[in-house]
Amino acid sequence: MADGCCDASKIVSTFLLNTCRLPPRLSQRGVEAALWCALTADEHAEDAKEVEFIPSVTGSVAEFYIEPMLPYVGDIDVMSYNNVMLAIPRGHSPPTQLPAEFHNRIYVHEITDSLLPGYVYLPVRYLLTQGLDDGKYKSVELEYEEWLYLSNKSRKGGGRNIHGPARFTDQSHTRTYLSTDAVPCIRCLSWPLQAADWPTRHRNYGWPDSATLDRVVSNGCDVVGVAHRQCRQLEWIGDYQWRLSFSRAEIVLINSWMPLQQIVYHMLRYFVKTERLTDCTDDSGAGTLSNYHIKTLMLWACELKPTSWWTEDLNLVRISAELLNTLSVWLTDTRCLHYFVNNCNLLDNSFRPTVGSVTNKVMLIEEGYLSMWFINNYIGQCAQMCPAYISRLFYHIPSNVELQNAALRIVHWRLNTSLLDLWRSLYMSELTITYAVSVHSLSVRSCVRWVNELTKICQHVSVYFSAVALLHVACKISRNGFSDDDVDILLIVFGHNFNQSCSDLSPRITELNTSELVELLQTSAVEYLTTCRQFMARDFGSVVTIVTTDFEAMYAYKLGDYQRCLQLSTQNIHTLLYAVRMPDVPTFPEFIQLLHDDIVSLKALTLIIDPKCRLLDNHNACITQLTLSLYLMIQCQLKLHHSVTSLAKTLYYITVAQRRHLPDRTMDHLTLKLIERKVYLATWRLALKLTARKCEIQ
To answer: What span, in angstroms and rounded, lies between the C-alpha atoms of 519 and 497?
Structure first.
């Protein structure tokens, strides 16, 4: 039995170590988080034009650098603070210098203790104004009667659901795949007094190290608007109590973990979620187990356990079982010490009515049980993601040898598909950017957030956003003329890509008339898009057939250079005709301006018939490179008056393409049908002309 337990634990541990990737910086979740940062920056713009909301991504998207096979991110957490408010620890002098994003007039709130550790009040204490001469802030202490306590109720608004300090927005708002918790907060640039002992407390095993400690402390903290669960119904405290948030610190600490520690954290979260140990069992308002308790468990374990405890046998199941046993002790004693704040218990008496059944479940967990649980509920789920010849291996597994072989097949499949998965992530990231900019438009604030967040991810998505932004502005000024906001957006995009200052770029942009500017933006966008195709071909050419000149061909046709367009399109068709996979070309308005009226009309028709054609997960938001190339080839052949023989050869290409596109690719099939009809009509007209000439000769 012991040997069987050991074998099962080893199989699970090996499986997780080999399937949890250490991904490159590109991730679709990261791009979706960038989208939410851009939307958050614009959220209150109409109500307070001088107030800017500074968002940052927190939670799982920012904490994990591993990428397991099964989902580890349930939603995107975005915290945002406004630039006219600041919190400082009680007794601290107000600052004289602040980061550039802060306003020149700021109300400073003092963090004062409430009755409960980790929860505070925020009376306003100072007014800061920035000097014009030296840029330093000067403070005025407000009279005592002016000390107003900041209410936490101001966080509620926007028609969103509230849970905890967050405003919940589901993904239907943006057609992304993950919902979002938007958390308004007040920024505190200093480390709080309530956690003053944390940086200096004695640590036996050197984690966190001094550099990590310094980075955590220098980031300060935030204060979020939520009262303690025991105080929310109290008349005054419920409205004015706030909670210290250490999300920035947690991101730094969790990113400093070893990969196996991140994997254990993922295992624990997956287990408690699947076993529904974090679900509330009644409406009493009593506390329940949450992911934050699991995070706290891991933070304490990383500090209190030596490195050898984690690495000596690489038994992730043993580690997880021991940590769950520690959790059961915490639940029994209803005592879970906050990792940062002294004397703050995250498991007080309000948990007693709800955690009894959870405690009983966790208390009985041992390594053998947990090994079989992960085999059935984790590896078995991963098997369902694989082709049928692999998933069938898990229908009946009588021995550990066969189980190990089946798990290895999944690992090999995971490794072999890693590059293809990354390409799909890039494809969806591009589509997310296009959809978001097209539907939600761009402001100066959101453009800054897009640029800042995407630059952190990878050069490809940053350049792609620049192209979409330029096409978006070109659309706007073609319809509505040029505005100051458009100038500022272009200065941000061009300045970011060419590292030039606004003073260098502004005259060049503003001196152009509308048609000249539109042409400049379209030309620049095509250059950026072509660069993205070149990145894609370099990185993914082994798993996807990619041509790099499709946007060049589009623009050549738009400019009337039909010979150049025909040459490029013909080359592209020869490359793509029998390709298994190829990129798509979006048909959103930003890209439609580069296309011919026929495709514009087809796109409008599909939207009238089925508005869902604009959704991210709908193939009809795009056409393939092959369809586009065939369309351009036919158009150029007709413009250049090619022969019937030439058109007939193209008709063969169309027939092959129609067979190669799946039935649900409606936009592709409509476009192919359109150009097929064009070929038949052109051939028929040419035949009539030839017949007429013969008759004249006779």
So the answer is: 18
